[in-house]
C-alpha cells in the first residue's frame, strides 16, 4: 500500500458526461501528479500540483482540468467525455526536497469506462 | 516518434532465468532513470532509480544506463514467478521535486511472465 488513495475504483459513464476523480496524497506529500494509462499510449503525464498551485502540465486535454485543495487532496475533472477517454487514471504524490530525486508514490488508480 | 521506446513484449521466461528489459530514448536532456513494476490492477511502484550513466544493483535487480547510446536496461537474476508483472521504464530531465519540469516520461511497458 503506497499511502495514496484514489476514489472511485471504477467509473462507468456515457459519452458527453462529466466525471470527477479524487486523490488523497500520502501524509506530508505536497506534490500531486495525475497520469493517464491506456493500452496504446502507455502512462502519460497529465498535470502536477504543488501545495495548491499548478506546477507542470503534460498532454492534458482542454476538456480536462484539475485542482489541489488546501487539505492537499486533488481532483481531476473530465468533461464532454469521449470513448477514447476510457483509461486508467493514476494519481501519484511525492515530497519536495530541492536538488534531490523524490520518489513518486502511485495510487491504485481509477478505471474509467466511457460507453 | 516517441521520446521513450520500450518493447511491449509479452516476454515469457522459465523460472530461474536471467531477464533483460530495455528502453531507448531520444531526449539527451534525460538524466534520471527509473524502472517501475506494475502488477495487474495496481499502480506502478518504483523498483530502481539511477542518475546519469552507470550501473546500480539491488538484490536480484541490476539497472544499467548508457547515456552515450541513450539506452537503459534492467536485469533480473534468478527470476521468480512473483516477478511476473509489467515493467515500465521512466526518465526525467530534472529530479522530481526540484521545482523545475516535473514531468516523468514513461515507456509503454513490457509485460513479463515467469513460468514456474
Question: Could you explain the architecture of this structure?
Answer:
The complex is a heterodimer of chains A (115) and B (116). Chain A is mainly beta and 115 residues long. Chain A has strands at 5-7, 10-13, 19-24, 31-38, 42-50, 53-57, 64-68, 74-78, 87-94, 105-106, 110-114. In chain A, strands 2, 4, 5, 6, 9, 10 and 11 form a 7-stranded mixed sheet that branches. In chain A, strands 1-3-8-7 form a 4-stranded antiparallel sheet, with no helix packed on it. In chain A, β7 and β8 form a beta hairpin. Chain B has strands spanning 4-6, 11-14, 19-25, 32-38, 45-51, 54-58, 61-66, 71-76, 85-92, 105-106, 110-115. In chain B, a hairpin with a 2-residue loop joins β6 (54-58) and β7. Chain B is built from no helices and 11 strands. The mean pLDDT of chain B is 91. With 116 residues, chain B is mostly beta strands. Chain B starts with a strand and ends with a strand. The relative contact order of chain B is 0.33. Chain A binds chain B through residues 2, 4, 31, 33, 41-45, 48, 50, 55-56, 58, 90, 92, 94-109, and chain B through 6, 32, 41-46, 49, 51, 88, 90, 95-99, 101-109.
Number of strands of chain B: 11
Largest interface: A-B, 32 and 26 residues
Element order of chain B: H for helix, E for strand: EEEEEEEEEEE
In DSSP terms (H or I, runs of 4 or more residues), the helix count of chain A works out at: 0
Which word captures the global form of chain B?
globular
| Global mean pLDDT of chain B | 91
Structural class of chain B: mainly beta
* Rg of chain A computed from alpha carbons, rounded to a whole number of angstroms: 14 Å
Radius of gyration of chain B: 14 Å
What share of residues are in beta strands of chain A?
Answer: over 45%
Class of secondary structure makeup of chain A = mainly beta
Unreliable stretches covering 5 or more consecutive residues of chain A: none
Order of helix and strand elements from N to C terminus of chain A: EEEEEEEEEEE
Amino acid at each position: 500500500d503506497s499511502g495514496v488513495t484514489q476514489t472511485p475504483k471504477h467509473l462507468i459513464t456515457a459519452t458527453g458526461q462529466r466525471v470527477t476523480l479524487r486523490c488523497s496524497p500520502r501524509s506530508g506529500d505536497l506534490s500531486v501528479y495525475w497520469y493517464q494509462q491506456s493500452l496504446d499510449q502507455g502512462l502519460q503525464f497529465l498535470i502536477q500540483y504543488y501545495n495548491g498551485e499548478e506546477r507542470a502540465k503534460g498532454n492534458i486535454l482542454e476538456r480536462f482540468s484539475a485542482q489541489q485543495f488546501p487539505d492537499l487532496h486533488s481532483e481531476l475533472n473530465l468533461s464532454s467525455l469521449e470513448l477514447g477517454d476510457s483509461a486508467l487514471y493514476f494519481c501519484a504524490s511525492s515530497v519536495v526536497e530541492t536538488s534531490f530525486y523524490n520518489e513518486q508514490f502511485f495510487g491504485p488508480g481509477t478505471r474509467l469506462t466511457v460507453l | 516518434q516517441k521520446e521513450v521506446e520500450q518493447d511491449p513484449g509479452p516476454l515469457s521466461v522459465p523460472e530461474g532465468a536471467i531477464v533483460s528489459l530495455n528502453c531507448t530514448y531520444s531526449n539527451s536532456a534525460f538524466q534520471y532513470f527509473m524502472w517501475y513494476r506494475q502488477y495487474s490492477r495496481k499502480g506502478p511502484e518504483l523498483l530502481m532509480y539511477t542518475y546519469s550513466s552507470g550501473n546500480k544493483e539491488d538484490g536480484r535487480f541490476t539497472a544499467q544506463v548508457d547515456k552515450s547510446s541513450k539506452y537503459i536496461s534492467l536485469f533480473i537474476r534468478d527470476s521468480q514467478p512473483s516477478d511476473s508483472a509489467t515493467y515500465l521504464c521512466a526518465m526525467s530531465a530534472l529530479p522530481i521535486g526540484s521545482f523545475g519540469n516535473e514531468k516523468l516520461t514513461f515507456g509503454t511497458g513490457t509485460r513479463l511472465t515467469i513460468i514456474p
